[in-house]
TrEMBL record:
Residues annotated as domain CHCH: 31-65
Region (Disordered): 1-21
Organism: Citrus sinensis
Disulfide bond as UniProt keyword: yes
Positions with biased composition (Gly residues): 1-11
Protein name, entry field: CHCH domain-containing protein
PANTHER family the UniProt entry points to: CYTOCHROME C OXIDASE 19-1
Amino acid sequence: MSAGGAFGGNRGARPVPPEKGVFPLDHMHQCDLEKKDYIGCLKSSGHQSENCRIFSKKYLECRMAK
């Protein structure tokens, strides 16, 4: 067997986290309106996220764009 392990990974190397994370936080508050709409929908629907998918989609689109 090779020194890299059964699946080719290097068992001695430690994983390195991404610099800013996979989905960084909105520190600049660029998507606050979309976030408030989503949170308001969750509160009014008894935290049933299925009912608020359109707001979730709008928030995620805003985050990806900015």
